[in-house]
Structures are given as structure tokens and as C-alpha cells.
Amino acid sequence: EGAGEKVEDAGGRGMAAVLAALVAPGGVAAGAPKVTLRYFNIRGLAEPVRLLLALAGQEYEEVAFESCPDAGCPEGIADWPSFKAEHGNSEVLPFAQVPSLTWREADGSELHLVQSLAIQRFLARKFDLIAERDDAQSARTDMITGGIADVRKRYGQLVYNPEVAGPQGTRLIEAFKSDTLQNWFPFFERLLEESGSGWFVGDSISFVDTMAFDMLESNLRVDPTCLDSMPALQAFFKRVASVPALQAYLSSPKRRTWSNGASAAFDTKEKPAQAVPNFAAGKEEL
Asked: From the CA atom positions of the chain, what is the Rg in Å?
């Protein structure tokens, strides 16, 4: 089976799950769930969730937060401190944190979830985008998502370190490249080669792949050369970006411009990343 066939299959798999019900007039699946995602007006920890929803073809409402109580929020933006004060330690925000997702069934029943990985696992099971054929696959999924989370944590420690914006910035970024990217990315390269399918777990795309893609893309904005000696990861990155549903999302206005919040020292509105992958149609350039 060729890579092109895998991509075509991957792009339609989640969509089929969403449209399993009869389609009502107007093109909306009868009895389809309604989804609300709440997060800050950046990519951050919600971006793997957005990628998964895009891959599944699931429409969703998004509540985007900023801190704007005095000046008033721009259209389409909600004030985070006010929302947190009202809903913190509730079923919507059980840990007073976002991302937060509400899943509403056609019968009116609701499920509220927080924690990015828990949300991704829930959606992956709903849309058959998780490899759980046996205990080995389940364990491999846990292992690789744990590794991705470790790299993401190190990335967060870098970009939210205020010293990165000062005289020590170059030294800190170079240390991150050598200690994290050059150390960890060969692990993922080997794991991808080991799978033999072009995907991290199983023989088709899963939420592990969209999660890995987001981690790679964030770090390519730090170091655009970080995959130069990683042919398997390079091919994987382009493969994921070329799945039609994901390519449409990545090049759409729904895709946030900045990865991080205003308090970060890198990849924000005030301090934009200099290296940005191009996801225009047919141009998945690193």
C-alpha cells in the first residue's frame, strides 16, 4: 500500500464516523453531537484538539479567551478572569483550567472534559482515531504520547522563560536545541521507523499522529533545521499536513497565528516566530 493511499484513507476515516447517521437537509448529520471548545486565543494546549476535530470533520463552537475586563473584549473574545471566577471548580472547569470541552448528544445529555490529553483520547475513541487493537498498541500509545508531553513541557519551559527575551536568549535557545531537540527527536525517528506504517501506532492515522505533528510544528518554529537529519519525521510531517481535512484547517482562518500567550518570550503577537512552515495547498514546506 503506497503512502498516497494511506493519506487518502486517513483523511476519510474520521469523517465517516461523523456522518454515520442519516444526513439531514442542509448537510448536517441528523443526531450529530454538538461540541464546544474553550481555550485562550492561541494554539497552545488546545491545538492538538483542534487538529483532531478537523481530522474527524466535526464542527464545533469555540469560546476564545483573553484578559480584557476593563477595556472590554473584542468581538468573538471572552474575558478569562471573569469566566474563571464564575465557572472555576465547576463541571465545566473542574480544575479551573482550559482547554475545556463540552460534548452534547442529540438527546440533550452533556459531558464536560478538561485536560488536553483526556479530551484527545475521548474524541479519538468517538471517531475511531485511536489504535487499541491489543494491550501492546494501547501501551505504545501511552508511551509515545507521554514522550510527546515531555518534549512539550520542555518547550513550555523555554518559551515562558522571560530570560529568552533578554541577553541570555540566544544561549538558552541553543541549549534547548542541543539538550532537547537533538536528544529527543532521534527517539521519535526510531519509533516511527519501527512502526513500519508511516504512523506512530497502528496502520492508519491516529490522535498520536496529530499530537506529534503539533509538537513537531511548534519546534520547527524554534529551529527550522531540527528535522534535517530525520527523514522519517520529515516524511511524516508532510504526510500529516497533506491529509485533506488537515490541510484545509491548517490553511484556514481558524488556525491561530501564534502558538503562545502574551506572557511568553517567543511565538506571540508581540514576539512572532521567524520560521513558520507553509501549509498552503501543495506546499507543506519545512
From this structure: 19
